[in-house]
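Work Package 3 (structural annotation) set out to generate three-dimensional models for the target panel prioritized at the project kickoff. During this period the team completed the workflow that converts sequence records into C-alpha coordinates, so that structures can be stored uniformly alongside our sequence database. As a representative example, we reproduce one entry of 417 residues exactly as it appears in the project archive.
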Amino acid sequence: MQLKRVVVTGLGALTPIGNNIQEYWNALISGKSGAAPITYYDTEKHKTKFACEVKNFNIEDFMDRKEARRMDKFAQYAVAASEEAIKDAGLTDTNVDKERVGVIWGAGIGGLETFQEEVLSYAKGDGTPRFNPFFIPKMIADIAPAHISMRNGYMGPNYTTVSACASSANALIDAFNYIRLGMCDVIISGGSEAAVTIAGMGGFNSMQALSTRNDSPETASRPFDANRDGFVLGEGAGALVLEEYEHAKARGAKIYCEVGGGGMSSDAYHLTAPHPEGIGVIAVMKNTLRDAGMQPEEVDHINTHGTSTPLGDVAELKAISHVFGAHAKNININSTKSMTGHLLGAAGAIEAIASVLSIQHGIVPPTINHETADENINPELNLTLNVAQKRDVKVAMSNTFGFGGHNACVLFKKIEE
Protein backbone atom coordinates (compact mmCIF):
# COMPACT_ATOMS: atom_id res chain seq x y z
CA MET A 1 0.00 0.00 0.00
CA GLN A 2 1.35 3.41 -1.01
CA LEU A 3 1.22 5.90 1.88
CA LYS A 4 -0.24 9.26 1.00
CA ARG A 5 1.58 12.54 1.56
CA VAL A 6 0.33 14.83 4.33
CA VAL A 7 0.70 18.62 4.39
CA VAL A 8 -0.18 21.49 6.71
CA THR A 9 -2.71 23.88 5.18
CA GLY A 10 -3.99 25.88 8.15
CA LEU A 11 -2.78 27.24 11.50
CA GLY A 12 -4.46 28.76 14.53
CA ALA A 13 -3.02 29.89 17.87
CA LEU A 14 -4.21 31.30 21.17
CA THR A 15 -1.19 31.70 23.42
CA PRO A 16 0.17 33.74 26.34
CA ILE A 17 2.13 35.86 23.83
CA GLY A 18 -0.43 36.26 21.06
CA ASN A 19 -4.08 35.52 20.35
CA ASN A 20 -3.63 34.59 16.70
CA ILE A 21 -0.91 33.23 14.44
CA GLN A 22 0.54 36.58 13.41
CA GLU A 23 0.69 37.91 16.98
CA TYR A 24 2.19 34.64 18.18
CA TRP A 25 4.90 34.58 15.52
CA ASN A 26 5.81 38.25 15.97
CA ALA A 27 6.18 37.70 19.72
CA LEU A 28 8.28 34.56 19.21
CA ILE A 29 10.85 36.15 16.94
CA SER A 30 11.07 39.28 19.12
CA GLY A 31 11.70 37.22 22.27
CA LYS A 32 8.63 38.28 24.23
CA SER A 33 7.87 36.65 27.58
CA GLY A 34 4.27 35.78 28.44
CA ALA A 35 4.88 35.36 32.16
CA ALA A 36 3.26 37.78 34.62
CA PRO A 37 1.53 37.76 38.03
CA ILE A 38 -1.59 35.58 38.08
CA THR A 39 -4.85 37.54 37.71
CA TYR A 40 -7.37 34.68 38.04
CA TYR A 41 -7.28 34.27 41.84
CA ASP A 42 -5.60 35.50 45.02
CA THR A 43 -2.07 34.06 45.13
CA GLU A 44 -1.12 35.31 48.59
CA LYS A 45 -0.72 31.83 50.08
CA HIS A 46 0.77 30.22 46.98
CA LYS A 47 4.47 29.43 46.50
CA THR A 48 4.34 30.47 42.83
CA LYS A 49 2.39 33.65 42.12
CA PHE A 50 2.83 33.93 38.36
CA ALA A 51 2.07 32.05 35.17
CA CYS A 52 1.72 32.54 31.42
CA GLU A 53 -1.96 33.43 31.13
CA VAL A 54 -3.83 34.11 27.88
CA LYS A 55 -4.50 37.85 27.78
CA ASN A 56 -7.39 39.95 26.44
CA PHE A 57 -9.33 36.91 25.25
CA ASN A 58 -13.08 37.34 24.80
CA ILE A 59 -14.96 34.14 24.05
CA GLU A 60 -17.96 36.19 22.90
CA ASP A 61 -15.96 36.99 19.78
CA PHE A 62 -16.62 33.35 18.86
CA MET A 63 -19.97 32.45 20.42
CA ASP A 64 -22.76 33.86 22.56
CA ARG A 65 -22.54 33.91 26.33
CA LYS A 66 -25.04 31.10 26.85
CA GLU A 67 -23.03 28.70 24.70
CA ALA A 68 -19.77 29.78 26.33
CA ARG A 69 -21.12 29.01 29.82
CA ARG A 70 -21.50 25.39 28.76
CA MET A 71 -17.78 25.06 28.01
CA ASP A 72 -14.75 24.93 30.24
CA LYS A 73 -12.05 27.39 29.30
CA PHE A 74 -9.90 24.67 27.71
CA ALA A 75 -12.70 23.92 25.24
CA GLN A 76 -13.28 27.62 24.56
CA TYR A 77 -9.61 27.94 23.70
CA ALA A 78 -9.87 24.93 21.38
CA VAL A 79 -12.79 26.45 19.48
CA ALA A 80 -10.99 29.78 19.07
CA ALA A 81 -7.74 28.29 17.75
CA SER A 82 -9.48 25.80 15.47
CA GLU A 83 -11.68 28.48 13.92
CA GLU A 84 -8.60 30.46 12.94
CA ALA A 85 -6.96 27.34 11.48
CA ILE A 86 -10.08 26.32 9.52
CA LYS A 87 -10.42 29.81 8.09
CA ASP A 88 -6.70 29.94 7.30
CA ALA A 89 -6.98 26.65 5.42
CA GLY A 90 -9.96 27.90 3.42
CA LEU A 91 -12.12 24.93 4.34
CA THR A 92 -15.76 25.43 3.33
CA ASP A 93 -18.97 23.42 3.16
CA THR A 94 -18.41 22.86 -0.55
CA ASN A 95 -14.71 22.01 -0.92
CA VAL A 96 -14.51 19.07 1.53
CA ASP A 97 -16.46 15.88 2.14
CA LYS A 98 -17.37 16.34 5.81
CA GLU A 99 -17.55 12.60 6.36
CA ARG A 100 -13.82 12.53 5.57
CA VAL A 101 -12.86 15.43 7.85
CA GLY A 102 -11.91 14.52 11.42
CA VAL A 103 -10.88 16.24 14.63
CA ILE A 104 -8.14 14.66 16.74
CA TRP A 105 -7.23 16.81 19.73
CA GLY A 106 -4.85 16.69 22.68
CA ALA A 107 -5.44 17.65 26.32
CA GLY A 108 -3.42 16.48 29.28
CA ILE A 109 -5.89 17.53 31.96
CA GLY A 110 -9.12 18.85 30.44
CA GLY A 111 -11.66 20.85 32.41
CA LEU A 112 -9.73 21.35 35.64
CA GLU A 113 -11.31 24.72 36.43
CA THR A 114 -14.81 23.25 36.09
CA PHE A 115 -13.92 20.30 38.33
CA GLN A 116 -12.41 22.63 40.93
CA GLU A 117 -15.41 24.95 40.98
CA GLU A 118 -17.98 22.15 41.26
CA VAL A 119 -16.16 20.29 44.03
CA LEU A 120 -15.54 23.46 46.04
CA SER A 121 -19.19 24.41 45.67
CA TYR A 122 -20.27 20.97 46.87
CA ALA A 123 -17.90 21.15 49.86
CA LYS A 124 -19.53 24.39 51.00
CA GLY A 125 -22.99 22.82 51.00
CA ASP A 126 -24.81 20.48 53.36
CA GLY A 127 -23.77 17.28 51.60
CA THR A 128 -26.62 17.26 49.11
CA PRO A 129 -25.09 16.49 45.70
CA ARG A 130 -26.10 19.61 43.80
CA PHE A 131 -24.05 19.82 40.62
CA ASN A 132 -24.39 21.77 37.41
CA PRO A 133 -25.92 19.52 34.71
CA PHE A 134 -23.04 20.61 32.45
CA PHE A 135 -20.41 19.61 35.03
CA ILE A 136 -19.41 16.36 33.31
CA PRO A 137 -19.75 17.56 29.68
CA LYS A 138 -17.62 20.60 30.54
CA MET A 139 -14.94 18.64 32.34
CA ILE A 140 -14.21 15.60 30.19
CA ALA A 141 -11.12 15.90 28.02
CA ASP A 142 -12.80 14.61 24.84
CA ILE A 143 -15.31 17.48 24.74
CA ALA A 144 -13.00 19.95 22.97
CA PRO A 145 -12.88 18.07 19.63
CA ALA A 146 -16.58 17.33 20.04
CA HIS A 147 -17.34 21.05 20.04
CA ILE A 148 -15.10 21.63 17.00
CA SER A 149 -16.83 18.78 15.18
CA MET A 150 -20.36 19.90 16.04
CA ARG A 151 -19.73 23.52 15.10
CA ASN A 152 -18.45 22.52 11.66
CA GLY A 153 -20.33 19.31 10.90
CA TYR A 154 -17.14 17.26 10.60
CA MET A 155 -18.11 13.58 10.80
CA GLY A 156 -14.74 11.82 10.54
CA PRO A 157 -12.72 10.40 13.47
CA ASN A 158 -13.23 12.48 16.61
CA TYR A 159 -11.38 11.94 19.87
CA THR A 160 -8.82 13.23 22.34
CA THR A 161 -5.35 11.86 23.00
CA VAL A 162 -4.14 12.03 26.61
CA SER A 163 -0.43 11.55 27.32
CA ALA A 164 0.22 14.44 29.72
CA CYS A 165 2.43 17.06 28.07
CA ALA A 166 2.88 14.93 24.93
CA SER A 167 -0.88 14.88 24.27
CA SER A 168 -1.15 17.23 21.31
CA ALA A 169 1.99 15.85 19.64
CA ASN A 170 0.37 12.42 19.89
CA ALA A 171 -2.80 13.91 18.37
CA LEU A 172 -0.80 15.24 15.42
CA ILE A 173 0.85 11.86 14.86
CA ASP A 174 -2.52 10.10 14.94
CA ALA A 175 -3.95 12.63 12.48
CA PHE A 176 -0.92 12.20 10.22
CA ASN A 177 -1.35 8.43 10.23
CA TYR A 178 -5.10 8.49 9.53
CA ILE A 179 -4.55 10.68 6.49
CA ARG A 180 -1.54 8.88 5.04
CA LEU A 181 -3.42 5.58 5.37
CA GLY A 182 -6.21 7.05 3.26
CA MET A 183 -8.84 7.06 6.00
CA CYS A 184 -9.41 10.85 5.93
CA ASP A 185 -8.81 13.80 3.63
CA VAL A 186 -8.47 16.45 6.33
CA ILE A 187 -8.04 16.43 10.12
CA ILE A 188 -8.14 19.40 12.48
CA SER A 189 -5.54 18.58 15.11
CA GLY A 190 -3.77 20.27 17.99
CA GLY A 191 -4.41 20.75 21.67
CA SER A 192 -5.65 23.05 24.41
CA GLU A 193 -5.18 23.45 28.14
CA ALA A 194 -6.38 25.80 30.88
CA ALA A 195 -4.79 24.65 34.12
CA VAL A 196 -3.79 28.00 35.63
CA THR A 197 -6.07 27.38 38.60
CA ILE A 198 -5.68 27.00 42.36
CA ALA A 199 -5.62 23.22 41.98
CA GLY A 200 -3.29 23.24 38.98
CA MET A 201 -0.73 25.60 40.44
CA GLY A 202 -1.00 24.05 43.91
CA GLY A 203 -0.56 20.55 42.55
CA PHE A 204 2.51 21.34 40.47
CA ASN A 205 4.00 23.37 43.33
CA SER A 206 3.61 20.38 45.65
CA MET A 207 5.76 18.40 43.20
CA GLN A 208 8.36 21.19 43.23
CA ALA A 209 7.98 21.36 39.45
CA LEU A 210 7.32 25.10 39.12
CA SER A 211 9.70 28.03 39.20
CA THR A 212 9.29 30.24 42.27
CA ARG A 213 11.04 33.27 40.80
CA ASN A 214 8.23 35.57 41.99
CA ASP A 215 10.42 38.68 41.93
CA SER A 216 11.00 38.36 38.17
CA PRO A 217 8.28 36.30 36.44
CA GLU A 218 9.27 37.36 32.93
CA THR A 219 12.73 35.78 33.35
CA ALA A 220 11.59 32.66 35.24
CA SER A 221 11.35 30.34 32.24
CA ARG A 222 15.01 29.91 31.36
CA PRO A 223 15.68 26.63 29.59
CA PHE A 224 19.32 25.48 29.59
CA ASP A 225 20.40 28.25 32.01
CA ALA A 226 22.43 27.09 35.00
CA ASN A 227 20.03 28.85 37.38
CA ARG A 228 16.76 27.39 36.08
CA ASP A 229 14.46 26.28 38.88
CA GLY A 230 11.39 24.75 37.24
CA PHE A 231 8.83 25.40 34.54
CA VAL A 232 6.31 28.23 34.23
CA LEU A 233 2.75 27.05 33.74
CA GLY A 234 1.04 28.33 30.59
CA GLU A 235 -2.36 27.98 28.95
CA GLY A 236 -3.93 28.31 25.51
CA ALA A 237 -4.38 26.30 22.33
CA GLY A 238 -2.82 25.51 18.98
CA ALA A 239 -4.55 24.07 15.91
CA LEU A 240 -3.16 22.68 12.66
CA VAL A 241 -5.09 21.57 9.61
CA LEU A 242 -3.46 18.43 8.23
CA GLU A 243 -4.52 17.44 4.74
CA GLU A 244 -3.77 14.85 2.11
CA TYR A 245 -1.46 16.45 -0.46
CA GLU A 246 -3.45 15.74 -3.63
CA HIS A 247 -6.66 16.83 -1.93
CA ALA A 248 -5.03 20.11 -0.93
CA LYS A 249 -3.70 20.69 -4.44
CA ALA A 250 -7.06 19.92 -6.02
CA ARG A 251 -8.81 22.63 -4.05
CA GLY A 252 -5.98 25.14 -4.50
CA ALA A 253 -5.00 25.27 -0.85
CA LYS A 254 -2.04 27.19 0.52
CA ILE A 255 0.54 24.68 1.77
CA TYR A 256 2.87 25.60 4.64
CA CYS A 257 4.99 22.44 4.65
CA GLU A 258 4.85 18.67 4.61
CA VAL A 259 4.58 16.40 7.65
CA GLY A 260 7.55 14.11 7.14
CA GLY A 261 7.15 11.68 10.02
CA GLY A 262 6.28 11.06 13.62
CA GLY A 263 7.73 8.95 16.39
CA MET A 264 6.77 7.78 19.87
CA SER A 265 8.50 6.01 22.75
CA SER A 266 8.36 5.47 26.48
CA ASP A 267 11.06 6.06 29.06
CA ALA A 268 9.73 3.11 31.14
CA TYR A 269 11.63 4.72 34.01
CA HIS A 270 9.85 7.08 36.46
CA LEU A 271 6.52 8.80 37.10
CA THR A 272 7.84 12.32 36.55
CA ALA A 273 11.62 12.34 36.07
CA PRO A 274 13.28 11.74 32.70
CA HIS A 275 15.88 9.03 32.36
CA PRO A 276 19.18 10.83 33.12
CA GLU A 277 20.75 9.58 29.88
CA GLY A 278 17.63 10.39 27.84
CA ILE A 279 17.21 6.84 26.50
CA GLY A 280 13.52 7.36 25.71
CA VAL A 281 14.28 10.64 23.99
CA ILE A 282 17.01 8.97 21.92
CA ALA A 283 14.49 6.34 20.88
CA VAL A 284 11.74 8.79 19.91
CA MET A 285 14.03 10.89 17.71
CA LYS A 286 15.47 7.79 16.02
CA ASN A 287 11.94 6.49 15.47
CA THR A 288 10.92 9.79 13.91
CA LEU A 289 13.88 9.89 11.52
CA ARG A 290 13.23 6.28 10.56
CA ASP A 291 9.56 7.00 9.91
CA ALA A 292 10.48 10.01 7.76
CA GLY A 293 13.17 8.08 5.87
CA MET A 294 15.70 10.77 6.72
CA GLN A 295 19.27 10.92 7.98
CA PRO A 296 20.28 12.91 11.09
CA GLU A 297 22.40 15.22 8.92
CA GLU A 298 19.28 16.48 7.14
CA VAL A 299 17.80 18.11 10.25
CA ASP A 300 18.26 21.89 10.53
CA HIS A 301 16.22 22.77 13.59
CA ILE A 302 14.89 21.13 16.77
CA ASN A 303 12.25 22.78 18.94
CA THR A 304 13.01 20.99 22.19
CA HIS A 305 10.69 20.07 25.02
CA GLY A 306 13.01 22.31 27.05
CA THR A 307 10.84 23.04 30.08
CA SER A 308 13.48 24.82 32.20
CA THR A 309 13.77 21.99 34.73
CA PRO A 310 17.20 21.00 36.07
CA LEU A 311 16.99 17.33 35.01
CA GLY A 312 14.91 17.45 31.85
CA ASP A 313 16.92 20.00 29.89
CA VAL A 314 20.22 18.17 30.37
CA ALA A 315 18.76 14.75 29.51
CA GLU A 316 17.21 16.04 26.28
CA LEU A 317 20.39 17.73 25.07
CA LYS A 318 22.40 14.60 25.88
CA ALA A 319 19.96 12.65 23.74
CA ILE A 320 20.31 15.12 20.86
CA SER A 321 24.11 14.81 20.98
CA HIS A 322 23.78 11.03 20.98
CA VAL A 323 21.41 10.86 18.00
CA PHE A 324 22.98 13.57 15.85
CA GLY A 325 26.65 13.17 16.77
CA ALA A 326 28.95 15.75 15.20
CA HIS A 327 26.01 17.25 13.28
CA ALA A 328 24.34 18.31 16.55
CA LYS A 329 26.42 21.49 16.65
CA ASN A 330 25.07 22.48 13.22
CA ILE A 331 21.43 22.33 14.34
CA ASN A 332 19.53 25.39 15.60
CA ILE A 333 18.15 24.12 18.90
CA ASN A 334 15.67 26.21 20.85
CA SER A 335 12.95 26.17 23.49
CA THR A 336 9.99 28.45 22.83
CA LYS A 337 8.74 27.58 26.33
CA SER A 338 11.13 30.30 27.45
CA MET A 339 8.44 32.67 26.09
CA THR A 340 5.13 30.81 26.26
CA GLY A 341 5.69 28.83 29.42
CA HIS A 342 4.61 25.19 29.45
CA LEU A 343 1.13 24.66 28.01
CA LEU A 344 1.03 21.02 29.14
CA GLY A 345 -1.25 19.13 26.73
CA ALA A 346 -1.21 22.04 24.26
CA ALA A 347 2.58 22.38 24.22
CA GLY A 348 3.13 20.02 21.30
CA ALA A 349 0.66 21.92 19.14
CA ILE A 350 1.97 25.44 19.66
CA GLU A 351 5.56 24.25 19.32
CA ALA A 352 4.73 22.36 16.15
CA ILE A 353 3.29 25.63 14.83
CA ALA A 354 6.52 27.44 15.76
CA SER A 355 8.46 24.76 13.83
CA VAL A 356 6.21 25.11 10.78
CA LEU A 357 6.61 28.90 10.82
CA SER A 358 10.39 28.58 11.12
CA ILE A 359 10.35 26.61 7.87
CA GLN A 360 8.05 29.14 6.21
CA HIS A 361 9.91 32.29 7.28
CA GLY A 362 13.50 31.05 7.54
CA ILE A 363 13.87 32.26 11.12
CA VAL A 364 14.41 30.26 14.32
CA PRO A 365 12.91 31.93 17.43
CA PRO A 366 15.27 32.37 20.38
CA THR A 367 15.61 30.67 23.73
CA ILE A 368 15.30 33.75 25.93
CA ASN A 369 16.42 34.45 29.51
CA HIS A 370 19.75 32.64 29.18
CA GLU A 371 22.37 34.27 31.40
CA THR A 372 24.65 31.59 32.83
CA ALA A 373 26.06 28.57 31.02
CA ASP A 374 25.36 25.17 32.57
CA GLU A 375 28.56 23.12 32.86
CA ASN A 376 26.50 19.97 32.21
CA ILE A 377 25.48 21.18 28.73
CA ASN A 378 27.74 20.86 25.70
CA PRO A 379 28.90 24.42 24.87
CA GLU A 380 29.19 23.53 21.17
CA LEU A 381 25.41 23.22 20.82
CA ASN A 382 23.68 26.19 19.20
CA LEU A 383 20.80 26.85 21.59
CA THR A 384 19.71 29.99 19.69
CA LEU A 385 20.26 32.05 22.80
CA ASN A 386 18.34 35.30 23.40
CA VAL A 387 18.12 36.44 19.76
CA ALA A 388 16.29 34.88 16.79
CA GLN A 389 18.55 33.54 14.04
CA LYS A 390 17.93 33.52 10.30
CA ARG A 391 18.27 30.05 8.86
CA ASP A 392 17.06 28.23 5.79
CA VAL A 393 15.10 25.55 7.64
CA LYS A 394 14.34 22.64 5.35
CA VAL A 395 13.67 20.11 8.11
CA ALA A 396 12.45 20.81 11.65
CA MET A 397 11.68 18.45 14.51
CA SER A 398 9.47 19.20 17.51
CA ASN A 399 10.00 17.22 20.73
CA THR A 400 7.32 16.81 23.39
CA PHE A 401 7.48 14.67 26.53
CA GLY A 402 4.99 13.95 29.32
CA PHE A 403 4.88 12.75 32.90
CA GLY A 404 4.77 8.96 32.83
CA GLY A 405 7.60 8.81 30.32
CA HIS A 406 5.52 9.55 27.20
CA ASN A 407 7.67 10.84 24.33
CA ALA A 408 6.44 12.12 20.97
CA CYS A 409 8.25 13.84 18.12
CA VAL A 410 6.93 15.28 14.85
CA LEU A 411 9.08 16.10 11.81
CA PHE A 412 8.14 18.80 9.30
CA LYS A 413 9.89 19.53 6.01
CA LYS A 414 9.74 22.02 3.17
CA ILE A 415 7.28 20.96 0.53
CA GLU A 416 8.73 19.48 -2.63
CA GLU A 417 6.15 19.72 -5.40
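The two ends are 21 Å apart (CA to CA).
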